[in-house]
Amino acid sequence: MPDAAVTDPAVTDRSAVVAETQIDRDTNQTTGQPTDDTARGRSLGARPVSDRALAWLMLVGGVVGFTAAFVLAVEKIALLTDPSYTPSCSLNPVLSCGSVMQTAQAEAFGFPNPLLGVAAFPVVAATGAALLAGARLARWYWLGLQAGVTFGLVFVGWLIFQSLYRIGALCPYCMVVWTVMLPLFGYVTLRNATTGMFGAKVGGSRVVRVAAQWHLVVLTTAVVVALGLIADRFWYYWSTLV
């Protein structure tokens, strides 16, 4: 019988070199940052949604957010022109855009808040359209987008607190923007984390893996908590409608 095959040490060494080279291609060993291939979408772990699904979310979310912000801006201009004007979204003592628009919080940066959405949401929608068309965006662009959606979510959180516990009224169009910002932030962040935009260490962390696996649970929980806070804060009014 022929002798058993013997592994050639030279072959083993070449395999090791190939493996190390692949690692070097994926991650810059000097900076620890992802290289272009990784930054363009090579996943470091489980992806919650595909790039195409994220692109559709950004396109639709951007259009919806822009529409809500634009209508709010028009209503604000009408209110400034005629103080007696009743906005179309002033439906009752709780759902009252007019009450919210006339507060200092409605101009947090010295100009009407809706102008932020009018400027920002078209960028989100255009990014989604570009991705659907096959564009491959650079790492700096994704990080810039991350900064934008993070600011948006923090600002929305502040506005929710102000609406519930300081102003005591809700703006329906504002709530549309709140609803859009939550999944935009969540899925852009998960996409960036799982593709190495924040570095391989973050992308491979247990927190990111769990968030990617249970993303729908996390999103649903956040929505339920927000609805619960709204229901509790204005229960005195909701209870009269039952």
Automatic annotation (TrEMBL):
GO molecular function, one term: oxidoreductase activity
Highest taxon in the source lineage: Bacteria
Cellular component terms per the entry's GO annotation: membrane
All residue ranges annotated as the Vitamin K epoxide reductase domain in the record: 51-192
Keyword Membrane in record: yes
Membrane topology designation: Multi-pass membrane protein
Transmembrane domains' residue ranges: 53-74, 115-133, 140-161, 167-190, 211-231
UniProt-annotated location(s): Membrane
Family: Belongs to the VKOR family.
Protein known as: Vitamin K epoxide reductase
Source organism per UniProt: Nocardioides silvaticus
